[in-house]
Amino acid sequence: MAPFYVPTSLDERVLRPETLSPNIIKAEYGVRGEIYLEAQKMVNAGKEVVFMNVGNPHALGQKALTFPRQVMALCQAPFLLDDPNVGKLFPRDAIARARQLLKMTGIGGVGAYSDSRGVPGVRQEVARFIEHRDGFPSDPEHIYLTDGASPAVKLALQLLIRGEHDGILVPIPQYPLYSATVQMLGGSLVPYLLDEKKGWGMNIDLLKESVLSARRKGIMVRGLVVINPGNPTGQCLERGDLEDIIKFCIKERVALLADEVYQVNVYQSKHPFVSFKKVLCEMGAPYSRSLELFSFHTVSKGFTGECGQRGGYVEFTNIHPEVLEQCYKIVSVSLSPNVTGQLMVGMMCNPPQPGDPSYKQYAAESKEVLESLGRKARALSEGFNKFKNMQCNEVEGALYAFAKLQLPPGAIAAAKKAGKAPDAFYCLELLKATGMSATPGSGFGQEDGTFHFRTTILPEEDIVPGLLKKVERFNDEFMTKYSTMQSRM
Ligand code: DCS
């Protein structure tokens, strides 16, 4: 007999769903939820699935830009730099950049922990990029490099949330990183609605109402999340909106979390991307000294699309110096962001310049990626708008089409019977019929009584027309089936 008690059933495990923190159980992440798991099962059963639920560019065929990968290859294998043939295999500027980056990382190269805030030289490259983009100074001391934008968002939320009485204003619909992280940190989500009829624009009056209603419940609103360009909604905010948001934050004493990870993914010229930092600086004092701003960016999107490399950054503006010290302490607990991701950030911020040997190829590759995304954005939204009971706002930016479904009561009843949200029911049927894995609007939050689904615009261009045809056929059949059911009910 064992000298200690051996548990015999799962009910005796230390860790069971009912013994976990309720904040873990309550957190939801619909982008990889039920539909995604079903899609995985279909793949395992040998069926063809197009994963349109995640904005994961390379997984859907977007090619890595040549220059950053050449530099990365040399940084990973620095002995190649001593090879007499290196000049035949790599362009001069890639070799020079690899040497420069390896100098920045020091003797340990990509194999050593870096400073917990990131490699100082790369933080300088980020600061120079921001200065060039916005036309205002940026201090590398106020930039932290992170493993993609996600940990940077988490860091800002950790600073803001002390408990359930601290609230964060999050757009509805939103990218569920926000709702899930607020939940996991034990804070309160304070939703504010985006206006679908106005191209998913922000309405400051609705924002104020949300703050007032939260305060009535004893919640102290400490942060506002704005995703621009929007995920899942695809809108690009106008400059005037940004000014209003900045004034609102200062007046209501909330910090602003500016999620600008899609700043390069803009497909029209009516609403070009402009950063919150730039607008804030242009508004001048006292605004420019008042707003507490966190700005996020990543290598996962844009024409780099390097999600797997996990590189991102946060720029802190007007954050109390002692809070920054606490931030440094917090990131130090995780030792170091991954170093290759940091180098990717450096190359995103400091690409080849005109006259450099790699410039032409870099410019051609990035232009091709963006133009193709623009064509796909238009094809999908225009296609969806032609389908029965479906409407989709223009995809002005980001990587997604977010279509509204007018579901017949018969479909809503069938979903209820199946124990599913109506748009999850639609997405599941869509997946089974077409192999297209989309994400239901319920995964992002939506106005009560409305239904949506999100697809990324990333699939390779030549499969888009075929995909649209399949969706149209499925959608027609679905809507007809459940409209007739409704009349028989
Ligand atoms: N912010 C927004 C608005 C995002 O859409 C994403 C990722 C992130 C932050 C975090 O990205 P990284 O951590 O990779 O920098 N977008 C997810 C999505 O909606 N589909 O795929 C990933």
TrEMBL record:
Keywords for the protein's UniProt record, in alphabetical order: Aminotransferase, Pyridoxal phosphate, Transferase
Pathway it works in: Amino-acid degradation; L-alanine degradation via transaminase pathway; pyruvate from L-alanine: step 1/1; Photosynthesis; C4 acid pathway
Keyword Transmembrane attributed: no
Cofactor: pyridoxal 5'-phosphate
One GO-annotated biological process of the protein: L-alanine catabolic process
Xref: Pfam families: Aminotran_1_2
Entry EC number(s): 2.6.1.2
Residues covered by the Aminotransferase class I/classII large domain: 93-462
GO terms assigned for molecular function: alanine-glyoxylate transaminase activity; glycine:2-oxoglutarate aminotransferase activity; L-alanine:2-oxoglutarate aminotransferase activity; pyridoxal phosphate binding
Subunit (UniProt): Homodimer.
Family: Belongs to the class-I pyridoxal-phosphate-dependent aminotransferase family. Alanine aminotransferase subfamily.
Protein name: alanine transaminase
Native species: Klebsormidium nitens
